[in-house]
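From the shared-data thread, chain only:
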Amino acid sequence: MLVTIIVATYNCAHYVEATLDSVFRQTYQDIELVVTDDCSSDDSVKVASRWIENHKERFVRVAQTHTEKNSGVTANYNAGLREAQGEWVKCLDGDDMLPDDAIDIYLKHCNTKATIPVWYAHEQPFDDNGNQGTVNRTVLPQGSARKQMIYLLNNRLLGICTATNFIHRETFIRQGGFDKRYPMYQDGSPFLQALSEGKSVGVIDEVTLLKRTNPDSLMHTANPMMVHNIRDCHYHYCHYYLRYLMPLHYYNAFVTHFLATHDTSRWQVKTMGYLFRCLDLVNIQRRLSSI
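Structure, as tokens:
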């Protein structure tokens, strides 16, 4: 079975060789490597090209793409997805790394449950000095898509180490690939699109990603566009509360989004926020049901 590893790069010339080395060391052999760059201003493309030339014999197939204009991480991964030919796809940022047996771990689980289109696992943070942090765990409960969606909505889409995704390519392409509405937030697409179609997400109780704590990354710099994309994505999928007949939860989600998108320094907004929080209907319902 062919597995595609998409390495998405953007100004990560200092790290991309280590990332590609971790792909090279995979114990699973049938791997296609796709490296896609989003118009880096450093030597990311040159470094990756040189590495590929020296290591291409290890892979079933190698492809490299780059854009002439910076388009965002979502478009970058979609470019890699268009090049991919593997049955399963592992997405990997150009500064992260894979444990040597990562692909074997994924396949061991997904081959037992063919109906699950996307899998997640745990990630091990590390810094440039090799120091490791506490393992970040995917805590999404096993079960139906409805159960998983409600859990995520109640926890503001937290509970999945999104960078550990392992995606069934054809299924994901039919769903439209990475959601173009959020150019700086590609991580939500795989699990949210699967759950919204009634397909549950798989959870692996093992570490499959070494996550670099890069101070220049979008997450660590709190890129304003990324923050805006995440907020809008959360609100969009909160509409599923209505599908599941949970209007009070939807009300709380609406209030959260309203306060996040308005100037809270204005007294009118502050007053509205205070009143909305006083009318926390979900907690009121819980208290009444416990009487």
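The chain has a mean pLDDT of 86.
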